[in-house]
Specification:
Blueprint (H helix, E strand, L loop, with lengths): L1 H28 L6 E2 L5 E2 L24 E6 L7 E4 L5 E4 L3 E4 L5 H15 L6 E7 L4 E6 L5 E4 L8 H7 L12 E6 L5 E6 L1 H6 L13 E4 L5
Subcellular location: Cell outer membrane
Pfam families: Poly_export (PF02563), SLBB_2 (PF22461)
Membrane topology: Multi-pass membrane protein
């Protein structure tokens, strides 16, 4: 009888260990790579997080924009390290050299400019590194008969499709008409144009091409006509 009780206790102990391991494995794998959505329907990925001093890997040809956050470091000069948001006028305020206009420049060009400024009057052969810490948000608006109308952020490193934008606002509501979606777009000359899209066809027809959205697009989902 004692052996039987011992065996049951031993089995229960092992089952508890297995359950704990499975629970821990599930929790650790649940959040990787997923986008989170705010109440307004905005999609925010890992690249849109707060400035932490850790640079985001971008090519040297990435063009800096107002509201980007950059980290500037000078080798062996810790007092000159700074993480700063690019202001509306395109400039950043740096120690010693003051305001430097970097918006519109590539990462490589801005790094070269800052190096020249420090080298001119303050340091001998400075080694400057410039990293993007946070991207300026690029958004589209998804309005009308969707479940969570609002803004959706464009990923910094790839395109955003209409299907992804609709998914980000939790889909079209039961009153919405997916066959007559309107996309309003402002071209480079400031002129507005509209296109009508049959979203049902995009979803159902494998040969129908998805729509690649651009910054500033407004997607309108009308109600069904009953």
């Amino acid at each position: 009888m004692k052996q039987s009780s011992f065996f049951i206790s031993l089995c229960f102990f092992f089952f508890s260990l297995i359950a704990a391991a499975q629970e821990g494995g599930g929790n650790s794998g649940g959040g990787s790579g997923s986008a989170s959505y705010s109440n307004s329907g905005s999609a925010t990925g890992s690249a849109g997080g707060s400035a932490s001093g850790i640079g985001i890997v971008v090519g040297e040809n990435y063009v800096l924009k107002p509201s980007d956050v950059v980290s500037v470091e000078v080798y062996q000069e810790p007092d000159l390290e700074k993480s700063v948001r690019i202001e509306g006028d395109g400039s950043v305020a740096l120690a010693l050299v003051g305001k430097v206009k970097v918006a519109g420049m590539t990462v490589a060009e801005a790094q070269s400019l800052i190096t020249d400024l420090y080298n001119r009057d303050f340091l001998v052969d400075p080694q400057v590194s410039l990293l993007v810490v946070q991207f300026s948000p690029r958004i589209v608006h998804v309005l009308g008969s969707v479940n969570y109308p609002g803004q959706v952020e464009l990923p910094p490193d790839r395109d955003l499709t209409l299907t992804e934008a609709i998914a980000a606002v939790r889909g079209i509501s039961r009153l919405g008409n997916p066959k007559s979606i309107t996309i309003k777009r402002i071209d480079v000359n400031g002129r507005a144009r509209q296109m009508e899209v049959n979203f049902s066809r995009i979803v159902q027809d494998a040969n129908e091409r998805d729509i690649v959205l651009q910054e500033g697009d407004t997607i309108w989902v009308p109600e069904r006509i009953i």
